[in-house]
Amino acid sequence: MARVLLLAASAGALVAPPTQQRPRSALRAAVSKADVMKCLGREYRSFFAPLEDQYYSSGVTFDDPLNSLSGLKAYRNNVDMLAGRTLFGGLLFSDAAINLHDVRELEDGRLQTRWTLRVCFSALPWAPTARFTGISVYDLDAENKIKGQTDYWDSIDLKQGSYSRSSKGAAAQDFANQLFGGDKTSDGELPYELLRRADYSVRRYPAVSVAEVAYDVRPEGYDMLGSYTGGFNENDAKMQPFLPSIITVPRSGGGAKTMTWPVSLAEDDLPGSRVVKTRRARELTVACLVFPQAATEDAVQYWARELEKKLAADGLSGAPGHETNYVVAQYDAIS
């Protein structure tokens, strides 16, 4: 029974602070960097429909873990293929989208975006969806036109907080793992925005109305919440909660353990109960690590330390107060 260990992370950890204005060149460029950054925002939102070629050099190069190409025509064909807008691409891909999380200027004058890419590989009968998170680094020419784009994937290129190119074999294996039995979203899972996909993940969950109880033994929590969502509440209302069941345990070993079920994305109040508490949980960004064994005290303590080590190596840290509790999400507890 796979479980996921959740640790609240700083929501701003993956987004850069504002950068200082760089001195203007004595020679005015054809376009400004601010113009290019706005262009990238538009292109990401539309999945490059259209590609605004006035912001690109005719000899623009592109390099990601799987592909390398040069020339504006090849660049446009590549994004059109991934979007399914070419004959070949329409046979392979569908439902492509890219979510831009951040765009900024680096100290050396290049531009960098952080993004999440999703694409359905429709050439396979089960049409799996592959997801990638990472960064793109843009080199600009003297006119501030994009002359080169280099993409890095968090899953294979992020090492100890910095990016370096992995082999194309590693990239192909990462892609294949997603197509043939990789990470799957559970049916009925609370929707979230994927911010980082590495050997751990960072996710942004929306605000949600939850039902929760304090408990001594885990079956007790399941019974109380199952009865509540099954209609044993003031409105006699039956509700279908989202996955997962979230268990919060004080790290000190003392104090009450809490079980929380996400129930509704709507802002309406949940039905009252003499046993179950309800509240509106705020939007939250968390780092998550899957571990395979039962969530015993020793296992949770070990994997919590491992997750914290991975976050620290990549320059991330938990939000204030995260060290108070262990938070475990169980996906096989709600039916």
Task: Describe what you observe in this structure.
Strand 13 (245-250) and strand 14 (257-264) form a beta hairpin. The protein is 23% helix and 35% strand. The protein has helices at residues 33-46, 72-82, 87-92, 154-157, 168-179, 218-229, 297-313, and strands at residues 3-8, 56-63, 68-70, 93-105, 111-121, 129-140, 146-153, 158-159, 162-163, 193-197, 201-205, 208-215, 245-250, 257-264, 277-281, 284-291, 325-330. It is an alpha+beta fold. Mean pLDDT is 90; it is low at 15-28. The chain is built from seven helices and 17 strands. Strands 10-11-16-1-17-13-14-12-15 form a nine-stranded antiparallel β-sheet. The longest helix is centred in the last third of the chain and has 17 residues, at 297-313.
**Series of H and E elements:** EHEEHHEEEEHEEHEEEHEEEEHE
Backbone CA Rg: 23 Å
Q: What gross morphology would you assign?
A: elongated
The unreliable regions are 15-28
**Could you tell me the number of beta strands?**
17
Helix content: 10-25%
**Major beta sheet summary:** 9 strands, antiparallel
Task: Assign the structural class, choosing from mainly alpha, mainly beta, alpha/beta, alpha+beta, or little secondary structure.
Answer: alpha+beta
Compact description:
With 335 residues, the protein is α+β, with helices and mostly antiparallel strands.
Topology of helices and strands:
Elements: E1 3-8, H1 33-46, E2 56-63, E3 68-70, H2 72-82, H3 87-92, E4 93-105, E5 111-121, E6 129-140, E7 146-153, H4 154-157, E8 158-159, E9 162-163, H5 168-179, E10 193-197, E11 201-205, E12 208-215, H6 218-229, E13 245-250, E14 257-264, E15 277-281, E16 284-291, H7 297-313, E17 325-330
Parallel strand pairs: 2-7
Antiparallel strand pairs: 1-16, 1-17, 2-3, 4-5, 5-6, 6-7, 8-9, 10-11, 11-16, 12-14, 12-15, 13-14, 13-17
